[in-house]
Amino acid sequence: MNLMKAIWRFVASSLVLTMLLAQQGTAGAQPTDVQFFPETGHNIKGDFLRFYTSVRDPKMIFGYPITEQIASRDGKTVQYFQRARFELRADLPESQRVQLTPLGQATYQAREQLPLNDSAGCEMFSTGFTVCFAFLDFFNANGGTAQFGNPISPFEFHENLIVQYFEKARFEWRADRPEGQRVVLTDLGRLYFDQFGEDAAHLKSVNPLDATINPILSMKVRAFVARSVTRSTGQQTVYVIVQNQTGQAVSNMAGQATIHWPAGGSLDRSFITNSSGVGTLTFDFEDQKPGELVTIDIVVSYEGLPGRTRTSFRIWF
């Protein structure tokens, strides 16, 4: 009887352990539903994120997000990217729920045409325009009509560039770029955002929706002194402000200030930024020569990323 109880306990324990491991495996395998882009300080989530990541090179095709998911002036739920605008259509099947605004059509203005004397290497489309050479190679390699729509213009000169408009994009020929990278997409998303008169407040960077994400790609460091002019003997306080690439405060950042005396020599003082990204340091000085400038170099570092600035004050009398 005791043996049977032991066997059942073993079996029950094994089943519980198996269920826990399965749940952990499932939880770990679930894809995240939000992604933060520190380059522009915006998130992509849900259907928009799934559509964004469905192409081979989303950063090249769409660029970075420049707004959050917002209610546009036309009443649609949209999100702007550097080179695109996504529209959410809740009335459509899930696979078709995200649509691209035809930004090429919305922004096209005819300019000087570039005639072609040889149609070799070109393909004619139903709109009556051809796509040729490197433009055709780029078009076919990155989704073709499904991604860019049909061509709606011939080759034209715009702002000293050879371009061609499609329903959803504009191609540019950039001779200054390496071979194989000379076709780029115009930032029509930002152009249309301004042209359509959207609220510029939507462009302001935001915090990551996932609170665990707080990447630091670069730092902005500023500093100023409490007194820009002082007596020859006294006390000075320096305030240091540290922010990341999107202007968010960087807390618990250690730094060092080096005070350079006009007569020679220096003094080092360390500081740590608070929750507002502000660090302070105070030091005494005496018998400094009137009229001289005291300079202060500030250095902070985060995982090899340097941040520097300089401030100063004048000994007045």
Name a few traits of the molecule.
alpha+beta; about 325 residues; 2 domains; 5-stranded mixed beta sheet; 7 helices; 20 strands; disordered N terminus; 4-stranded antiparallel beta sheet; Immunoglobulin-like
SSE order and pairing:
Elements lengths: L1 H28 L4 E4 L4 E4 H7 L5 H4 L8 E2 L5 E5 L2 E5 L9 E3 L2 H5 L14 E3 L5 E3 H9 L2 H5 L7 E3 L2 E6 L2 E5 L9 E3 L2 H9 L22 E7 L3 E2 L3 E11 L9 E7 L5 E7 L5 E8 L7 E10 L2 E11 L2
Parallel strand pairs: 14-20
Antiparallel strand pairs: 1-2, 3-4, 4-5, 5-6, 7-8, 9-10, 10-11, 11-12, 13-15, 15-18, 16-17, 16-19, 19-20
Report on this model:
The protein has about 325 residues and is of the alpha+beta class. It folds into two domains: about 30-215, no CATH class; about 220-315, Sandwich (Immunoglobulin-like). The chain is built from seven helices and 20 strands. The longest helix has 28 residues, at about 1-30. Residues about 1-30 have low confidence and may be disordered.
Question: Short description, anyone?
Answer:
The strands form six sheets. A five-stranded mixed beta sheet has the order 14-20-19-16-17, with no helix packed on it. Helices cover 21% and strands 34% of the residues. The protein has 317 residues and is an alpha+beta fold.
